[in-house]
Fold this sequence. Notes:
homodimer, mainly alpha, Tetracycline Repressor, domain 2, disordered N terminus, DNA-binding
Amino acid sequence: MTDLPASPDPAELAAPPKSRREQIHEVASRLFSERGYHATSMRDLAGELGMQGGSLYAHISGKEDLLMEIVDRAARQFDAALFTLREDPRPADAKLREAMERHIRVVADNMDSATVFFHEWKHLSPGAYARVTGWRDTIDHFYRDLLRQGIAEGHFRADLDVKMGANLILSAVNWAYTWYHPGGNLTPRDVAEGYAEMLLGGLRAPAAAEPGASP
Amino acid sequence: MTDLPASPDPAELAAPPKSRREQIHEVASRLFSERGYHATSMRDLAGELGMQGGSLYAHISGKEDLLMEIVDRAARQFDAALFTLREDPRPADAKLREAMERHIRVVADNMDSATVFFHEWKHLSPGAYARVTGWRDTIDHFYRDLLRQGIAEGHFRADLDVKMGANLILSAVNWAYTWYHPGGNLTPRDVAEGYAEMLLGGLRAPAAAEPGASP
DNA sequence: CCTACCGATCGGTAGG
DNA sequence: CCTACCGATCGGTAGG
Lengths: 215, 215
């Protein structure tokens, strides 16, 4: 109820005005994720922004650069989310929970560009393509190192197959892009904690309980 | 070293001659998986088969029908692999291993069409689209039922979140299409057993071992 | 299975 | 940011 003079549009309070370039980037992420890169025309994209196809080129240099930047940003977000955990002093199981939560949060907060990241990177030029596989290797190694740390600490099973374990964890957190609904009743934290609980403790019942026994 | 008269081409011994239609289907799976549906032209497809673009239409009715059949077949393979397990009398943990092995085997034996199944189904017409989501629901329910059975039997933890557990399992087996290499040193059975072991028993060490302690 | 072609649409540019 | 346009390519067809 407080007056805020010289601020005519209340929408401008919540978010600073987005540059046209940023708007194009955002709509492109949505369309590329919904229809795929090649099935989205520059005229489709322009239409959603209320302009003509040719007008886009006043703001961007080309369709592929748009894709490259969407994929690049997504990759950097994954990397940034996990990077600060490398030097984290906590034990491996706590770090695994935290890493999975951050990883899923990146997916959840960027459903569109995460989908583009996973589906459309093969349409990039060889240079950008190589950069993406580099990011993915970095993330893979992060989880492998984490598992090795846990084994060395004695928190994880000594007979663990590190490669396979990292694959399993990556499957869980990446696949979220196919089913997670940001507006739903599950937060990224819920998912991460549920997954970590199952992964760390296992699905199997701790003791051989009698079937049908009541407490 | 035995003579086989009236069989001039030894390649015909291993595999019966594939119909042209089947060849088209096979090459289309590969191209759609490598480049995506919309980035593959009918002329690309025809070129790989040594014919002109227009000639394809003597064998098939259209591009989308090709996609629909590839996706349909993949869906049916997943369904068929798990269907016979519904009535299997084994305990849930054994059935889970078996289901994961069969599921991963379908992915591994059909890397191309599995990739198309996971990436290109959104380009189908609404009718075919609905059919695919139906298949996916069926598979999802299979794993949920399996988890419920395991809880009822007392083999699985009673506090298990069935939906999340099914999601975790599906993540593991489906994501294999992104990294599995059919010619490599890991069989689908290796992957399934490794995954099942980690999922059932958990990553955590059974007892609190001393870090650095030697046996 | 080929040649020749159809209308439609593509990414991108010139000039304003 | 628009109008008008470029050459290229698309899925598909006619007629043989």
